[in-house]
UniProtKB/TrEMBL annotation:
Transmembrane segments: 193-216
InterPro entries per UniProt: Znf_C2H2_type
Domain C2H2-type: 76-97
GO molecular function: transcription cis-regulatory region binding
Keyword Membrane in annotation: yes
PROSITE patterns: ZINC_FINGER_C2H2_1
Keywords: Membrane, Transmembrane, Transmembrane helix
This protein's name: C2H2-type domain-containing protein
Length: 240
């Protein structure tokens, strides 16, 4: 299948969408890695009114129709056209499949990046710039409003626990004191890392454990044989 080398040559042009696909993707990555595992653990269903719900991401359907085949090949799930880089398939989706975007109010996940610390996962310069107290206060207010709307304490123990977790995981870090870091409760990748590390440690220690048992058994066997020799020698030494 031929590659689309120059997406700019496509004839159709989309109307301007005032929402960053890249930052929306970063926000979704944060949600998937640092919130979803806890929500699933609590078996909690996010309301569609919650702005963190997957249906409130205008790019979600398009992103799920981007097929990664290998390092140099992406394929559009709508029309099967192939591209060498992700940025080219993004341009293609913007130009040819913009009609599939839901441009309803409140569907831009990028608008939540301030609350969700997108810059931390994007490794952008703004995450390392000098802290602005006013911006930190605005982001904290947005963050706390997300906690209140997505995990209302009145809905029960699960919602209450997730409300508290959300505050610790995201909101507490919106300060210029530097005392709190975002994602302090860990996430999906961290859990996988610890499981992998534990598995590797077991694989390393298991042979050592069996070697230790073997040495102990060998030592005990040697001692028993020595005791038997001493015992036999003692019987032979007795007068008849």
């Amino acid at each position: 299948m031929p590659y689309s080398r120059n997406p700019k040559q496509e004839q159709e042009r989309a109307p301007e969408v005032r929402c960053s696909r890249e930052r929306s993707r970063a926000a979704w990555k944060v949600i998937e890695e640092y919130l979803t595992p806890f929500v699933e653990k609590e078996n909690y269903q996010l309301s569609k009114k919650c702005r963190l719900h997957l249906e409130n991401d205008m790019f979600r359907d398009q992103e799920e129709h981007k097929i990664y085949l290998d390092r140099n090949e992406w394929q559009c799930g709508y029309c099967k056209k192939s591209f060498r880089e992700e940025k080219f398939i993004d341009q293609h989706l913007d130009n040819r499949h913009y009609n599939l975007l839901d441009l309803s109010h409140g569907k831009c996940l990028a608008d939540l990046c301030g609350a969700l610390h997108c810059d931390a996962v994007m490794n952008s310069k703004s995450s390392r710039s000098k802290c602005n107290p006013a911006a930190a206060a605005r982001n904290r207010h947005l963050c706390e409003s997300l906690a209140d709307s997505c995990f209302p304490i009145s809905e029960g123990p699960s919602a209450s626990r997730l409300h508290e977790l959300f505050l610790h995981q995201f909101c507490d870090a919106h300060t210029c004191s530097g005392k709190h870091k975002p994602f302090s409760r860990g996430g999906k990748d961290q859990g996988s890392f610890f499981r992998l590390a534990a598995g590797a440690l077991i694989l390393v220690l298991l042979p050592v454990f069996y070697l230790f048992l073997y040495l102990i058994q060998s030592d005990m066997k040697g001692r028993n044989q020595e005791l038997r020799r001493i015992s036999r020698a003692g019987w032979k030494a007795k007068p008849s």
